[in-house]
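>> Question from a student workshop board

For tomorrow's exercise we were told to take the sequence and the ligand below, predict the bound structure, and bring the output to class. My setup keeps failing. Could a helper post the expected result so I can at least see what it should look like? The ligand is flavin-adenine dinucleotide.
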Amino acid sequence: MSTDFDHIVIGAGISGLGAAHFSAQRGRTTLVLEASERSGGCLNSPHFAALDNFWVEAGGHTCFNSYGNLLTILDDLGLTAQAQAKVKVGYSLWQDGKRRSIVSALHIFEALRSIPRMFTAEKDGRSVADYYGSVLGRRNYQDLLRHAFAAVICQPADDYPTEALFRRKPRRKEMIKAFTFAEGLTTIADAIAAQPALTVRTKQQITAIACDGDGFRVELANGDTQHCDYLTLAVPPDVAARLLPAGFEAAHNLIKPIGMAEIETLALVLRSADVALKPLAGLIAVDDAFYSAVSRDFLPDDRYRGFAFHFRPGVLCAEAQLERACAVLGVSPQRVAAHTHIHNRLPALRTGHMNLVRQLDAALAGTRLGMTGNWFFGVSIEDALTRSQAEMARLFGA
Ligand SMILES: Cc1cc2nc3c(=O)[nH]c(=O)nc-3n(C[C@H](O)[C@H](O)[C@H](O)COP(=O)(O)OP(=O)(O)OC[C@H]3O[C@@H](n4cnc5c(N)ncnc54)[C@H](O)[C@@H]3O)c2cc1C
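>> Workshop helper replied:
Here is what the output should look like for this input. Compare the format with yours to find the bug.
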């Protein structure tokens, strides 16, 4: 069967775009098919045309100089020099309807007593609650860390696997430590998608995949069909489980139980003059309807300030979310200059996940099917790209 593309990647989040980039770099003709209207997935910087294109990060907001695979892509695209340092502003806790310092929730003597365990405690196979409760103390975990971690992964953190939360990665020291771009992190997704070496098509919902000779047949909701020799799934685990073709039952059974966290994000913009709150990186909610609120203060603007509130699902309706966010920011909802609601999704990993990934890799070994995402090593952009790079090396050679 003749195919237009050697390799089709399904999903144009950073995992799929990264896989496509690494595939195209290996000389494979590569097509990315994305269900939504835009590429980027959780990299989403909505711009507000009526407000001089001021933007807010509704998903991922920070890259670090430890993101080696990302930096390689930025080098390839000539984007590295355009990275912008984030202004240093701190996070606060949001508790009992008030902003509090993070230090105020720390039980310092308990931390000092527990910290030596950090040098000997094993992370692997342990939940976040178990590991951090042990190395920083139970009260520190209950009063501070569980909220901070829930704010990072936008879901309850207690049962999350420790080794998937923060992974140590070597830093590229000549590079800015924490960075973004003048137009936000969608700059990265847009630049990968725009390169002539690969093709990205949006509004292409994949409904089914079948094995076809040595390759695959991909069926789209619009009735189209595509054929390819190699296929990579770069979609959330529930979608991957649904799309896996017959013949991949072992992989299907492994990934089907992986849960997803649904996140109701509200991105809103206010005129700077209307917000009395001192500049801040964001709020970590201890006892509210949202997990966290991330501000745009890391790249200050004279006229506007932006915030993304990441709400727990199904707690408040859209209107009540806007009211809640305004109450937290101390402004009247009438003063909101612009806002938008976005549905984010992140994997809800559980202890034992790394063992599951090992079994999944064994089930995929020797096949022409790649699988990547933010649900292998961890949710960060670099964790996703690490998996994408490894899968492209498996399919096409190092
Ligand atoms: C609020 C928030 C803040 C974050 N902050 C940071 C941060 O500061 N730094 C950091 O490193 N990471 C951060 N992350 C994590 C990181 O942004 C994400 O884990 C990563 O961008 C996910 O990329 P992905 O490609 O694996 O998945 P996704 O971005 O979810 O992409 C999957 C894509 O698949 C598409 N798709 C689904 N089904 C189909 C189908 N049937 N057919 C075709 N396409 C389909 C989807 O539309 C989507 O575009 C954050 C995440 C969130 C939600």
